C-alpha cells in the first residue's frame, strides 16, 4: 500500500514539474509594437517576480506511534504477560503552509515550500509535528489573476518531530518526502490549497498526510 502511494506521488511530481517546464519553454505569442490598455492591465496583474505566502488550516496524518509496553492478565503464574503495542491510526491537528520563491511567468512559480502539522495523539504521548520542506513547482491552469485553479508538486526533507514541551526536549525522525496537490486562487492575494505528502523516515514509520489551508500571498 505505501509503495503504491509513493509511486503515484512520485509520478505526480514528475508530471507536474515536466509539464510546467514544457509550458514555460513554449514560445509566447507575438505582441504588438505599441502597448494597449489591455496589455498594461495584464502586466499589472502578472504573477511574475518575487512571491511569499503563509497560511493555516487542518491537517491529518496516518502514522504509527512509538511502541510501548503494557501488561495483560493471564490465568497462570505470574498472572500477567508483557505486551508491546504499536498504535496506528489517523491523528489530526492544526497545519501551516509557508512559501517563498519566484514567479517565472503568469502561470509558473518556482518555490521553497514548508508545511507542518501539529498533532496531539492523545494521553501518554507528547505533541508531534509532521513537517516537510523542499522545492515545489506551482502551475496555474489559467493566467487570469483572482479566479484560477492550480496544481503543485515537490520533494524535499521530511521530519516527524516529538515535542516534549514540559522537559524542553524531544526527538527527530528525519527522511525524504514527496508531495502533490491542488489549489484555487479565489482572490488576487488569497488561495485555498489541499496537499497530500508521504515521508520516508529513519524509523520506518513513514507517515502519509493530508492538509488543507487558507493562504495569503504577496507578490513583489
Overview of the molecule:
- With 220 residues, this protein is mainly beta.
- 15% of the residues lie in helices and 59% in strands.
- The chain has one domain: Beta Barrel (Porin).
- It contains two helices and ten strands.
- The strands form two sheets. An eight-stranded antiparallel β-barrel has the order 1-4-5-6-7-8-9-10.
- The protein is elongated and about 75 Å long.
Query: Which class do the helix and strand fractions yield?
Result: mainly beta
Low-confidence stretches: 28-35, 37-44
According to CATH, what is the class?
Mainly Beta
Strand tally: 10
The name CATH uses for the topology is Porin
Question: Beta fraction of the residues?
Answer: over 45%
Biggest sheet record = 8 strands, antiparallel, barrel
SSE ordering: HHEEEEEEEEEE
Instruction: Calculate the mean pLDDT score and round it.
Output: 76
Summary, kept brief:
With 220 residues, the protein is mainly β. The chain has helices at residues 2-25, 37-44; strands spanning 49-64, 68-73, 80-85, 88-103, 108-119, 127-140, 148-164, 169-187, 190-201, 208-219.
Topology at a glance:
Blueprint: H1 2-25, H2 37-44, E1 49-64, E2 68-73, E3 80-85, E4 88-103, E5 108-119, E6 127-140, E7 148-164, E8 169-187, E9 190-201, E10 208-219
Amino acid at each position: 500500500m505505501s509503495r503504491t502511494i509513493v509511486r503515484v506521488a512520485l509520478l505526480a511530481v514528475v508530471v507536474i514539474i515536466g509539464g510546467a517546464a514544457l509550458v514555460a519553454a513554449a514560445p509566447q505569442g507575438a505582441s504588438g509594437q505599441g502597448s494597449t490598455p489591455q496589455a498594461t492591465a495584464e502586466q499589472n496583474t502578472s504573477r511574475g517576480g518575487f512571491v511569499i505566502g503563509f497560511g493555516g488550516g487542518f491537517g491529518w496524518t496516518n502514522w504509527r506511534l512509538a511502541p510501548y509496553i503494557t501488561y495483560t492478565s493471564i490465568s497462570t503464574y505470574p498472572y500477567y504477560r508483557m505486551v508491546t503495542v504499536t498504535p496506528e491510526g489517523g491523528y489530526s491537528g492544526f497545519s501551516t503552509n509557508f512559501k517563498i520563491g519566484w514567479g517565472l511567468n503568469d502561470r509558473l512559480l518556482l518555490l521553497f515550500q514548508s508545511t507542518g502539522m501539529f498533532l496531539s495523539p492523545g494521553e501518554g504521548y507528547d505533541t508531534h509535528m509532521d513537517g516537510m520542506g523542499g522545492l515545489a513547482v506551482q502551475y496555474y491552469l489559467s493566467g487570469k489573476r483572482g479566479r484560477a485553479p492550480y496544481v503543485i508538486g515537490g520533494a524535499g526533507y521530511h521530519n516527524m518531530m516529538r515535542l516534549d514541551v514540559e522537559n524542553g526536549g524531544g526527538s527527530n525522525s528525519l527522511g525524504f518526502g514527496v508531495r502533490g496537490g491542488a489549489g484555487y486562487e479565489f482572490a488576487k492575494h488569497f488561495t485555498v490549497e489541499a496537499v497530500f505528502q508521504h515521508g520516508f523516515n529513519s524509523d520506518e514509520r513513514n507517515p502519509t498526510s493530508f492538509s488543507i489551508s487558507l493562504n495569503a500571498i504577496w507578490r513583489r
